[in-house]
Design goal:
Elements: H1 11-23, E1 28-33, H2 40-49, H3 57-61, H4 63-66, E2 78-85, E3 103-104, H5 113-132, E4 136-139, H6 147-153, E5 158-159, E6 165-166, E7 174-181, H7 200-203, H8 222-228, H9 238-241, E8 244-246, H10 250-253, H11 280-284, H12 288-294, H13 304-319, H14 325-331, H15 337-356, H16 365-371
Parallel strand pairs: 3-8
Antiparallel strand pairs: 1-2, 2-7, 4-7, 5-6
Helix pairs in contact: 1-5, 13-15, 14-15, 15-16
Length: about 375
């Protein structure tokens, strides 16, 4: 990260903060003027006006607070923007060829990054308050702060055509967090776009979720569908989901800048071996207690067992492995309608005639709609 050569009186304070951030385990640290003109609020308003946010109503509800970094805290003068590298030690797309196993997004293979990043942010903010006597507030992406454009302003990277942040040193694998402060710090030069004519991230998207570069229709994104959407996933997207059961790394993983994104053994984020391609059959058998145990401290836990098993069943339906009917059949009688419906779809894909013989009483309209595609007319 390039340090400004400005003669600003607080330049040395900025150097101290960066050194402390790196000591705490962050891999990137940049500075931006929190009160400067902010055009990104208009971009977000257009995104919502077009309905690209889907069922994520919280984005519309917090639109005004997202309109500018100071909309949540009018006294903020500077933003310290932090990045933590979570680049994988393997090609995350290899698992897509192992159809009996589950592809879980790299970011969700370890402890919840919100907790990991926030813990370090609080340590840095506490140190800043004690050291400089100014007010501070910390933010990760659960708060209504547009962190990616703020990170670009702070010089950490740029928003690629997939709308995620791309960093020259770390590729597309950076967790972001920010500390807003009343301390007046000289900003770093903003990063410029280095995507050029590359469109690898757009072309690989299984669901064509990018209507054009730098615009994402979340309603078509596998990450949105497997995490944010509560009901049945639209039928048109199920076959192309393959074995992706939580998130999707395709657009991130093909970024050419990832060749620089190596994580040291001292990194704060560590993937769990148990979540690097677990067997679909094992995941389908999870009940609520075993689901909570497996995904303790994991971001996966927040979608709940029912939605998770729904995703697993779509992957089983895509596997082509008739032997997996053994785990599908009990789930056709699951108490959760969203699980029963997904089980019917999976059974239809694997062994339709066998599935018909398993039909039991059903009164849920969405499950009945699944059965209507499998029963003889």
């Amino acid at each position: 990260m390039t340090t400004s050569t400005s003669s600003h009186p607080n330049q040395l304070l900025k150097d101290e903060i960066r050194a402390e951030a790196l000591r705490l385990g962050f891999h990137a640290c940049g500075f931006a003027n929190a009160a400067a003109t902010w055009p990104n609020g208009a971009w977000l308003a257009d995104f919502i006006a077009e309905g690209f946010h889907g069922d994520m109503g919280w984005m519309e509800e917090t639109l005004e607070r997202r309109s500018h970094p100071t909309a949540m805290w009018t006294d903020a003068r500077s933003a310290v923007v932090l990045g933590m590298n979570y680049g994988p030690d393997h090609d995350p797309l290899t698992i897509l060829g192992q159809t009996d196993r589950a592809a879980i997004s790299v970011y969700a293979q370890g402890d919840d990054y919100h907790d990991v990043v926030k813990k370090q942010l609080k340590l840095l903010a506490g140190w800043m308050h004690q050291r400089f006597g100014q007010e501070v507030k910390v933010f990760v992406d659960t708060a209504p702060l547009m962190e990616k454009p703020l990170a670009q302003r702070a010089g950490l990277g740029w928003q690629g055509k997939h709308t995620n942040l791309v960093s020259r040193p770390f590729g597309s694998w950076l967790f972001l967090g920010s500390v807003l402060t009343t301390l007046d710090l000289p900003p770093d030069p903003p990063e410029t776009n280095h995507c050029g004519s590359c469109r690898a991230c757009l072309d690989i998207c299984p669901t064509n979720a990018f209507p054009e570069p730098n615009r994402l229709d979340a309603r078509r994104c596998i990450s949105y569908l497997t995490i944010e959407l509560a009901g049945p996933i639209p039928v048109e997207f199920r076959p192309v989901m393959g074995n992706r059961i939580y998130g999707c790394d395709d657009c991130l993983a093909v970024c050419p800048w990832n060749k620089f994104a190596q994580v040291s053994s001292e990194a704060k984020f560590h993937a769990r071996e148990a979540l690097k391609g677990p067997a679909l059959a094992d995941l389908a058998r999870l009940d609520n207690p075993s689901f909570r145990a497996l995904f303790s401290k994991s971001p996966v836990k927040r979608i709940g067992r029912d939605r998770f098993v729904r995703n697993v069943l779509y992957a089983i339906g895509n596997s082509g492995d008739v032997a997996l009917m053994g785990v599908v059949e009990p789930l056709m009688r699951d108490p959760a309608p969203v699980v029963r419906g997904a089980a019917v779809w999976a059974a239809r894909r694997l062994a339709a005639e066998r599935a018909v013989a398993l039909r039991g009483p059903e009164d849920d309209p969405e499950v009945l709609a699944e059965w209507s595609q499998i029963l003889p007319r």
